[in-house]
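Case 611 in the screening queue. Each case pairs one protein sequence with one candidate compound; here the compound is oxalic acid. For every case the pipeline is the same: read the inputs, emit a complex structure as tokens, and attach any notable structural observations.

Predict complex for case 611.
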Amino acid sequence: MNVNELKHKGLKKWVDEAVALMTPDSVEVCDGSQTEYNHMIMVNIAAGLATPLNAGKLPGCVLFRSDPSDVARVEDRTFIASEKESDAGPTNHWTAPADLKQTMSSLYKGCMKGRTMYVIPFSMGPVGSDIAKIGVEITDSAYVVANMHIMTRVGTKVLDVLGQDGFFVPCYHSVGKPLAEGQKDSGVWPCASMDKKYISHFPETREIWSYGSGYGGNALLGKKCLALRIASVLARDEGWLAEHMLILKLTNPKGEVKYVTGAFPSACGKTNLAMLIPTLPGWKVETVGDDIAWMKFGKDGRLYAINPEAGFFGVAPGTNYDSNKNAMEACKKNSIFTNCGLTEDGDIWWEMIGQGAAGQEVIDWKGNLRPSPLKDKSLKGQEIAHPNARFTAPARQCPCIADEWDDPAGVPISAFLFGGRRPKTIPLVNQAKSWVHGVFMGSIVGSEVTAAVISDQVGQVRRDPFAMLPFCGYHMGDYFQHWLNIGKKSDPEKLPKIFFVNWFRKNAEGKFIWPGYGENSRVLAWIFDRCNGVTDNAVDTPIGFLPTISAIARPDGVSEADMKEILNVDIEGWKAEIADVRKNHYPKFGDKLPKELYTELDAIEERLNKA
Ligand code: OXD
Ligand code: MN
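Case 611 output:
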């Protein structure tokens, strides 16, 4: 479609301004068709950026290798530019919006020279759903267009819903590498140097400006930027929730259904949990979403969730037929792989894929020829696939996708899970005593940092409240208050019950005690029963309701002593946890930390002291 055919005056004006600033060679408005997707892939292949994979094994799939500086989200270069610094809060990087716009405008000046500007109208959520929102991303990356096709709903149908004056979130994106006359990418992933990368959000004007990175959450602006950072602000203002949560459908052996959402920090197994194959006979898990949930109250007073995305941008290493068969099946066709290894027979390979690589040699994610690994492991730092290598796969291809995954009305939620990677102290599962207690637990989530982000904290436990630390578009203290307000204005009987889970407890030898994956269905079954009002399966403890020792049937390899350990209240460990929250975590939020959370902290401390 031609820009002049755009009916929305505001959109047309915004695109015209961007063209004048960024001076692309040509402009294309995306229609979301299969022909367009195929064309984007061809453009990437022609530029030497994409390698077609073995069509017999992986039909319609391609592999990209990014620049080594452009492999993950860049939190240090991510900005919340609210008018007042205090509105961004202590967990965000703040810059004055006018200054940031000035700096970035000079970077955007002429940044698309030699390139095509693509205008991508996209819907986060089923097109036309009451809960969905529309964004328009301008980008000079055909990789981004192809990924947006999979991850969101793109095209003319979105423009139809937008009409002549509908609301959209305007998103600028450029890889930040203009081409000189006759210059081509010629196989070199285009991006700017780290100091020129900016992932900027203007919460008051609901705008996103991204520059210099072509990768994942930095560039696919519907995902972290719109669906979390900007949407969290919209949700606060409009009384709903935009959360870093998976959504799953759980069916018990009697055929009863409950929907559960779960917030876990990046790379903590959300995709695996959302696609779990239960080991418990008769139980079924189906997927509604694996990363983000938008929730609004329905007329019946319950919270209904939609998955604003249309695909999975999953971490590849560690994914295999044992850990996540459904994800492996989902990315078998029509998928994009980024920073995985390439085998001699045109197949992809990554660490812990379940087997060594076929043939004598593989090409690693940096493009180097390496001997084929016989086993599925590599030495740290010498991985064949980057630890944050990804697959982008259409949600509809997932064998366990729930029929209602794209229901515009959403699904009614019965339980919220919070969790992180915690080797010690935090038990396998723990139910909050009340909404406020649950909000308290969400506010203190901690997890070991993983490779999903470029950070020098990898391996250390960092507090990641509600798994939203890198994604909350405003002051985290106000965000806690928003959660408390949601509780205040609702019927407690109708609100989801809140649970804290931890699959990552380690024993003295540093080995995981709980096998995780499909065995987590045992914990989900307990949660299901708790939501159904079963009471004789739990004990009331100072930290919440824990399963009785026999309430969760033990999986193979977990002894009774192990079970006792992971269902024990580690009084001293919890006292240390509480002391850390009081000393190092809550003070960060100053006056904005809601008083009720301090009251909750005092109450837990008192219960621990009495225990
Ligand atoms: C993601 C993340 O990519 O959380 O989903 O980092
Ligand atoms: Mn995520």
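Case 611 observations:
- The chain has a mean pLDDT of 96.
- The pocket of oxalic acid (ligand 1) is lined by residues 73, 216-217, 266, 291, 313, 452 (CB under 6 Å).
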